[in-house]
Amino acid sequence: MSGYVLPPPAQPSVPVAGNQARFAVRRIFCVGRNYAEHAREMGHDPDREPPFFFSKPTDALLTDGAELAYPPLTADLHFEAEMVIAIGQGGTGIAPGEALSHVWGCAAGVDFTRRDLQAEAKRLGRPWDMAKGFDGSAACGALNPVAQTGVPTRGAIRLEVDGDLRQQGDLAQMIWSVPEVIAHLSRLVALAPGDLIYTGTPSGVGAVARGETIRVEIEGLSALAVRVT
Ligand code: MN
Prior knowledge:
This protein is α+β, with helices and mostly antiparallel strands. It contains 6 helices and 18 strands. The radius of gyration is 17 Å and the shape is globular.
């Protein structure tokens, strides 16, 4: 072993509720338009077009209590409250009936989005990376181990900005369920321990300004709060 020419980057990770040890993160995948009302508010027909995925870099992670510096080159930073699932056992071609056994934990998250850059990318047929994968764009609260909480299939998902309710939905409104999401994604890539999957957002997405605090609550999971500065 001859080492590295520069020190290797820090291992991205998220905290685990009730545990000093953290969950090391390998990759971050996100599902687009997985709640019908949100698909409609973005101008699409939600009638079960196959799920589609995009990625964020793992060093875009932002954990509970952190501050998000308002990202450059946007005037329209949006929040999207989402349940995040963490993969504990990898696989390819995972059957929906087996998928939940691959989940290690669940968390409340926010898929932060430069909505203006995303709209431009859509119009020009360009990638979404700079609209979705900027520094701090992947907020993720403490993971709740499945061994303790299971994988919620229903229950309220809510987002508040400075105490004002902005998004309110139910996990049962997902077009593609968590097992179906895992099954689809595992046909596209080999899932492995450490992978996170953002499972989509209910309707009510909107802009957030500097100085505002975002709080996401999902029934049965640890809450997530981040402040935009
Ligand atoms: Mn999203």
